[in-house]
TrEMBL record:
Source organism (scientific name): Candidatus Pantoea multigeneris
FAD/NAD(P)-binding domain ranges (all copies): 4-315
Keywords tagged on the record: FAD, Flavoprotein, NAD, Oxidoreductase
Protein name: NAD(P)/FAD-dependent oxidoreductase
Entries under SUPFAM superfamilies matching the protein: FAD/NAD(P)-binding domain
Length: 400
């Protein structure tokens, strides 16, 4: 009887886990196994780019890749995991409820925006968390051209001054001018609880963020939070109202709720604690990777963030290690000591940093060139070619 490995999710972590697992089985000539990916679509959605225009193009089909590597794909959405019975319940493409069993499970179901229970957010705010929402924002921005000139039409409020909020806000002036005309009086405002611009990202990188925002005309409303949203604007916690037809919510994500169905310790974001091999602590046959895993990146206290930078490498390790367990060989412990950031800052350029203290290495167009390379080449799936794909999935690939 074949061993059944079930991978839930086809994002960065799930896709790379599937490729990496088949790689190790191929190396050892082991065929008594079935690797299956369960996900709503056989495509990698390039989520880190959803702040950009033309969001509908930011997908990469992976069905041909799966076919080339003999990875089985089930189109559906998992909603229940029974750890005792080793089964997953899902709704297929037609909405019918189905069940599939597994011997080993890799949870790679990702994360989603943690929408707060603030008046009007669900009804009137936009976000760039998922493809459908990014497309919805794109359609809304395009529709602004049909409205009469007004301050509210030309104003965008971005709630949250973290990574996504900054990239969304600094891209917005160019996006709006393309729609409303170069002479339009555009106003983009970031509302953030911090006391300083980009405070959560460190002092050195925050100087580049402040410089870029100054040149682009992006304003910050610090020590503030949005307490209500309606179709014409927002109200802040001090009672101040900002007229804006566009409000974009970017205030953090949480791990997929499937993590709550797996017995194990979770962090504050709902991620499952995993060991160095990415096995869920206390669960012999379940691994977690990407945004659902709370994993140490080194031996000095740093942990993986909910980014594709970490999910790609974690996926390679999770797939390799679940296969290694079946093969009875040594796993490859997950470690990713080098941490970098490359923050897009619109037409100003980008800022690239290294280390957890975010030491700035490149700015403006030098940084932008690197960001473009990352966004358009490095994070995309490998070609549907066995040798190339398996070579790219090796967990021992040096991390530059």
């Amino acid at each position: 009887m074949k061993h059944k490995i079930m991978i839930i999710g086809a994002g960065f972590g799930g896709m790379w886990a599937a490729v990496s697992a088949t790689r190790l089985f191929n190396i050892h000539g082991y065929q008594d196994v079935e690797v299956t990916v369960l996900a709503p679509q056989a495509e990698l959605r390039i989520r880190p780019r959803f702040y950009e225009p033309d969001a509908h193009t930011l997908v990469a089909p992976i069905d041909a890749l799966f076919d080339a590597l003999d990875i089985k794909f089930i189109q559906g959405t998992a909603y229940s995991i029974n750890v005792e019975e080793k089964s997953v319940d899902y709704r297929d493409a037609s909405g019918m409820e189905q069940r599939v069993g597994y011997d080993k499970l890799v949870l790679a179901s990702g994360s989603s925006l943690a929408t707060p229970s603030i008046q009007g957010v669900a009804e009137h705010a936009f976000d760039v968390d998922q493809l459908e929402q990014a497309v919805r924002l794109e359609q809304h921005l395009t529709s602004l051209a049909s409205l009469a000139e007004s301050k509210g039409r030309n104003t965008v409020v971005v709630a949250g001054g973290g990574f996504t909020g900054i990239e969304t806000a600094t891209e917005m002036p160019a996006r709006l001018r393309k729609i409303l005309g170069e002479q339009a009086n555009i106003e983009v405002i970031i509302v953030d609880r911090s006391t300083e611009i980009g405070a959560s990202m460190g002092a050195e990188i925050s100087r580049s963020i402040a410089e870029a925002c100054e040149e682009l005309g992006v304003k910050w409303r610090l020590k503030s939070s949005v307490v209500a949203v309606d179709e014409n604007g927002v109200v802040l916690d001090d009672g101040h109202r900002i007229e804006a037809k566009t409000v974009v919510w970017t205030t953090g994500v949480r791990a997929d709720s499937l993590t709550s169905q797996i017995p194990g310790k979770q962090d504050a974001l709902g991620r499952l604690h995993v060991d160095s091999n990415l096995a869920v602590i206390g669960q012999r046959d379940i691994y977690a990777t990407g945004d659902v895993a709370y994993a140490a990146t080194d031996d000095i206290g740093n942990h993986a963030l909910m980014t594709c930078q970490h999910a790609i490498v974690m996926g390679r390790h999770a797939g390799n290690n679940v296969a290694a367990e079946i093969l009875g060989i040594e796993p490859v412990a997950y470690r990713q000591p080098k941490y970098v950031t490359c923050l897009d800052l619109g037409q100003w350029g980008a800022v690239y940093t290294e280390g957890w203290n975010r030491e700035v290495k490149l700015t403006r167009q030098e940084g932008k060139s690197l960001k473009t390379q990352i966004n358009t080449v490095w994070i995309y799936p490998p070609a549907a070619n066995r040798e190339a794909a398996w070579a790219a999935a090796d967990p021992l690939i040096p991390i530059a």
